[in-house]
Design goal:
The complex is a heterodimer of chains A (371) and B (233). By secondary structure, chain A is of the alpha+beta class. Chain A is built from 12 helices and 12 strands. Chain A is elongated. With 233 residues, chain B is α/β, with parallel strands linked by helices. The chains are: A alpha+beta (371), B alpha/beta (233). Chains A and B meet through helix 1 and helix 10 of A and helix 1, helix 2, strand 6, helix 3 and helix 4 of B.
Chain lengths: 371, 233
């Protein structure tokens, strides 16, 4: 028998209460895993989309909305002549309710721009020209919208032909409705406006040159900001708000878990007052009693953390299968996040055990002779 | 009252020992003096409220006296820096209500005090098995307290009290929760173990039949020692 045996037996004394406490912590930790995993997934999914398009720098104006604010397409002409700029592609990207789907990414791209080149046609074809009233659907978008080549798609007031299904190589690309820039400008009343410029730099451009280029572009195009691809999401106020809300909600859920552990461990100490006094009477040091209580609460936290990680991962996997989210993002459930969640749970456990442990340390062994 | 039982191996010496509770409203001990020698078997008798259990608590360092001095082997307990070590290595306790831990088997209960020693897990287990054998519980080591009879539970408690090689055994009404047959068996077991291991035994009881087995009987009333006599061998 080891000290860990003593600790686990303490928890098994009231298995139902211990189980319920673990469930309480698990829910809190599952919320951490799910919310943070989703918000991070939002960032990484967009980063992956950028990467597959071969974008090095993104010029956009990330405000408080999930998509960037539109600005004049003239900005492209100011950027193109700059040194280290290999090619640019103007885009107008929006999140729209399309037919039965509550939220779809609609990505309109400058005709002939490099952002078309990563698309592999799975079925059908790409539009013939910028004027053709046609869209191609990422393969996930086609599934969500239940469309095939030859169908028509109602995009606000515009009726467009689905001419192809494409594989964009990333979740965001595959979840998008892709069309030529002028079509979406016309449909949404944004003639002459874009909200993203994808930019590729010339081969051999150094990191510091990329940084200098970003600064130059930002000064030339004050209505937008140039950042290295991927970072523009992190730069977004909306993303920051989502991220803060994720952590805030998670912390609230964790707080509920803390109260659960404090309650359980306090009850444990109250119920086991005589038992603890007997341990003191037979020679256990107060520090060992304190360690026993803290290890019990840490073990509660650890088990709750493991349970929460499993529930969180399972829940998110189910969630991304729902039509509302499918194709919008791939949750980022990396091992580091899961390890952090379990670590949070252990810290919560130890923290919650401090007061009960202190209470237990103040008991006097003479109580052992009573009763 | 000064005791006549002086000797070279004095284990306990109490001088003017007092214990008050609730700001002096309750006087549990009102000035107690005695000496207990190495290897003695002393019964402390008295009615409920006489102060005998309070005195046992003082001897076991479970509580502090309000006044007076209590020495263990010449050193005042009040001056000992580590009373937990005293309780762990010098003293063994046997309680009327057994006080076994319900979620641990007999074998595990006996191992509990040994966490305060340097013994490894396997050494603790081996020692516990030997002790359970010594109290006649071989074959019952994997039973939880709820599955043991009262007599068996007290045997486990006795084995636990001797786990760290106690030099003094303090027993608080050890047969109080047992029927007369089991009470006799348990008392004989304690007496025989004392004879084999030569530990000092201080036993609190209100049963004069049990006290008659002791070599010396200290009678208490209203927090004072009213008699301190040797029993005829």
């Amino acid at each position: 028998m080891t000290f860990l045996t003593v600790v686990t037996r303490g928890l098994l004394r009231r298995p139902v209460r211990t189980g319920l406490t673990i469930v309480g912590i698990s829910i809190g930790i599952a919320a951490v895993v799910a919310l943070v995993g989703i918000s991070r997934g939002f960032e990484t999914s967009w980063q992956a989309g950028m990467k597959t398009r071969g974008t090095d720098i993104v010029v956009s104006s990330m405000g408080s909305a999930l998509t960037p604010k539109p600005f004049s397409a003239d900005a492209v002409e100011r950027i193109t002549p700059l040194p280290h700029v290999a090619e640019t592609c103007a885009l107008l990207v929006d999140l729209m309710s399309v037919e039965k789907a509550e939220m779809m990414i609609v990505s309109a791209r400058q005709w002939g721009g490099f952002s078309w080149k990563n698309l592999k046609v799975v079925n059908g074809r790409l539009p013939n020209d910028a004027a053709e009233k046609a869209v191609v659907l990422g393969k996930t978008a086609a599934d969500v919208l239940q469309k095939k080549v030859g169908d028509t798609l109602q995009l606000e007031t515009g009726e467009l032909a689905v001419v192809g299904i494409v594989d964009g190589g990333a979740v965001v690309e595959n979840g998008s409705i892709i069309l030529s820039l002028p079509l979406l400008q016309e449909i949404t009343g944004n003639e002459g406006k874009i909200n993203i410029i994808d930019l590729r730099v010339t081969a051999g451009t150094t990191k510091s040159e990329v940084t200098a280029l970003c600064e130059k572009i930002t000064s030339l195009v004050p209505e937008a900001r140039a950042v290295v691809a991927g970072e523009h999401i992190r730069d977004s106020q909306a993303y920051k708000m989502i991220s803060a809300m994720s952590w805030g909600t998670s912390l609230l859920a964790v707080l509920v878990g803390v109260l659960g552990v404090v309650n359980t461990m306090l009850m444990t100490v109250f119920e086991r007052t005589q038992e603890i006094c007997v341990l003191l009477a037979i020679g256990w040091r107060r520090s060992r009693i304190v360690r026993m209580i803290l290890w019990e609460s840490a073990l509660l936290g650890f088990l709750g953390g493991l349970g929460g990680a499993i529930i969180g991962v399972g829940g998110v996997k189910l969630l991304v299968l729902t039509p509302a989210i499918r194709g919008l993002l791939e949750p980022d459930l990396n091992p580091q996040l899961l390890a952090t969640a379990v670590a949070i749970a252990v810290v919560v456990g130890v923290f919650s055990g401090l007061y009960p442990a202190w209470r237990s340390s103040r008991l006097t062994p003479s109580h052992a002779l009573h009763g | 009252m000064a005791t006549p039982h002086a000797g070279a191996g004095c284990v306990f010496e109490a001088i003017g020992l007092k214990k008050e509770y609730e700001d002096g409203q309750v006087k549990a001990l009102r000035g107690v003096d005695f000496r207990i020698e190495q290897g003695e078997f002393v019964a402390i008798v008295g009615q409920s409220g006489s102060g005998k259990s309070t005195l046992l608590q003082m001897l076991g360092a479970l509580d502090h006296p309000s006044a007076g001095t209590l020495r263990y082997r010449g050193t005042s307990l009040a001056e000992r820096p580590d009373l937990a070590a005293y309780r762990a290595h010098e003293i063994g306790f046997i309680f009327q209500a057994f006080h076994l831990l319900p979620t641990f088997t007999a074998l595990e209960n006996v191992q509990i005090p040994m966490f305060e020693t340097d013994r490894s897990a396997s050494e603790r287990k081996q020692r516990a098995l030997e002790l359970l054998q010594a109290v006649g519980l071989e074959g019952r080591q994997h039973h939880f307290p709820a599955k043991l009879s009262g007599g068996e539970r007290q045997r486990v408690a006795i084995a636990r009290s001797l786990a760290n090689g106690a030099k003094v055994l303090l027993a608080d009404e050890p047969t109080g929760n047992l029927d007369s047959e089991n009470a006799g068996v348990i008392l004989d077991l304690i007496v025989n173990l004392r004879r084999e291991q030569n530990f000092t035994l201080v036993l609190v009881t209100h049963d004069m039949g049990i006290a008659s087995k002791a070599a010396r009987v200290i009678a208490m009333k209203d927090g004072r020692i009213v008699s301190d006599k040797l029993n005829a061998p």
